[in-house]
Fold these 2 entries.
Entry 1:
Amino acid sequence: MVFFVDVHTHLTHDDFNRDRDLVIARAKLAGLGAIVVNGLEPKSNRMILDMAKADGLIKPALGIYPLDAVCEIIPKDFPFEVRKFDVFEEVAFIRSEALAGRLAAIGECGLDGHYLGPEYLPGQEKVFEALIGVAMECNLPIIIHTRKCERRAGEILAAHGIEKVNFHCFGGRVNLAKELAEKYGWWFSIPANCTVNEGFQKMLSVLPPDQILTETDAPYLGPVKGQRNEPANVVGTVQQLAKLRGWTDEDAKKRVYDNYTRLFGIL
Ligand SMILES: [Zn+2]
């Protein structure tokens, strides 16, 4: 069987509180075989474990979002709320779940230089490196969020020699994505707004075909601006990939699914 896959989504978000089951049912109807739900901090990480227990379609990835990684030192006047928690206690929790074989991936995690200045980078890097260590120890893929720190994130990952890496919604230059994909064999997941985003279309066109995955980052980054995104929208990304590469839709779907099984193992 060949399925569609969403390797990065936030079904834990409050926007799904009223109809989460319906959204998952729609994904199944659309032909999805895996929804990798990514955690950000203790609350979403635990919710994801519960969701995965209840439905085999949900594949749990636990992580610490780059802003949450520095929650203990984030300024009071920060534009949105970042709740404090013991970050390294959470890393230990993620490690114990990974060692118990309950996780499909580590993430999301990485570096953010958009909301935070360089003075927060050392703190973010410490947490990022700890999670790279967990992924490598447990031979799990790691899902990377990076904003304005793409090259630095690549350097850190390369220094650790980690192979199972997926950059989610890569906002750096397309040439850098291509370079990282070719040099290290890393994967890149393209969001559903690729239908209207030139940068993502270019990535679909030029990245090595065996290293392309699909994601939604739902509820964010939908194909229609202002409208809530959901996992079923990966179907449009596969169609876009087929169109740009001159493949049939079936062919594009199979290639992305094969890429998924190579990175995540058959789950
Ligand atoms: Zn995300």
Entry 2:
Amino acid sequence: MQTSYDVVIVGGALMGSSIAYFLSENPDFGGSILVVEPDPTYENAQSTRSGNSFREQFSNPLNIKISQFGLEFLDDFEHRVVVDGDVPDLNFRGTGYLFLATNQEGLARLDADHLVQLAEGADVRMLTPDETQRQFPYMSTDTLVGSRFGSEREGSIDGWALLLGFRQRARHNGVTYVADRVVGLDRDGDRIAAVRLASGSVVPCGYVVNAAGTRAKVIADMAGLPLPIEPRSRTTFVFDCRQPIEENVPLTVTPEGVHFRRERQHYVTGGVPLDDRPVDYDDLATRHNEFEEIVWPVLAKYVPQFERIAVMASWGGQYAYNVLDHNLVIGPAESLVNLMFANGFSGHGLQQSPAVGRGISELITYGEYRTLDLSPLGYERIVRNEPFVESAII
Ligand SMILES: Cc1cc2nc3c(=O)[nH]c(=O)nc-3n(C[C@H](O)[C@H](O)[C@H](O)COP(=O)(O)OP(=O)(O)OC[C@H]3O[C@@H](n4cnc5c(N)ncnc54)[C@H](O)[C@@H]3O)c2cc1C
């Protein structure tokens, strides 16, 4: 480890590693990069507890563009992250997302977002209950008034492979990863002069990037800045269904806030806790009760075969939830010119990691966005309390 770095990234999971990757790939950058990550196994990170899915079906046009770049990045993944012939297997399964509506208000929302999505070039269409039934014959569509379905461009990957790809290539490019924790930031006027580590090291730096996931606010607090991001519990369940379903089971999102999709021979599901409040940063407990109380009744309502299922596995996780507008915060802190945020993904950050890495690398290298302008997602809106809303939250 050197004594000082041009860029110090706090957190080395998906977001930190994507930023390290894009910076170190950019020939115009050429600086030194340190990634500080206390847990190289990522056992408790969101990145390894994720639903691992990509979609075009957002309500906010900018989020559609962000995911479309993510999908484009996957297309070329092998060439971009290869090191000595080694490429982690993404194993993309293009199943699409299916959003259900059971009342006119819900249908109107799906339809309005559908127009936004079409305008952004998304491959998506509205289906009547009959069309939904024909395409997904295992579904009970009695309560449906309509649905919206994407294409095989949307789907799921092995998220661990994405993280490994970013990290292996960043390391290959000369990025240093250190197993340590950031415990303080030294301010010097309108800059962060140095980063303090739990080991006692003090690392002078040019830029600091906050990629600390659910602990983003802890880092912002060190700089004396507000950040409305809190950890929210989300439990994932994997189940087996005794009666096999032959047809595609896309990532289906119900109006009750339950989602399910097929994962090889099994199914993955989860819902929103009835009491959706901030939890302790270390609280990764599995909420077993949610399966019977929230998830199973909804599964059985839409798919009669799901009345007879068995839970095979489950795990707790957390969203880094932006309570202002359920959207990411990216770019410089207004009052601290060399502190960058990459936080608050509210459950859709995996697919946003390529665009976020590219965006931060452009800001640091050129002082501006050169490809996709992410400035509406900047920190200024937090200071002004002006939401830039994403309403299609799963
Ligand atoms: C159940 C669940 C389902 C999801 N499903 C999807 C999905 O289908 N599609 C999608 O796009 N997204 C999904 N997400 C969201 C996605 O997983 C996250 O947005 C993404 O992984 C965030 O990556 P990150 O690097 O910002 O955060 P994390 O993966 O949480 O990483 C943050 C890192 O910061 C480190 N850190 C914390 N404090 C410090 C410190 N003081 N010093 C140094 N390092 C520190 C931590 O150790 C951690 O490794 C889901 C998330 C969950 C929990």
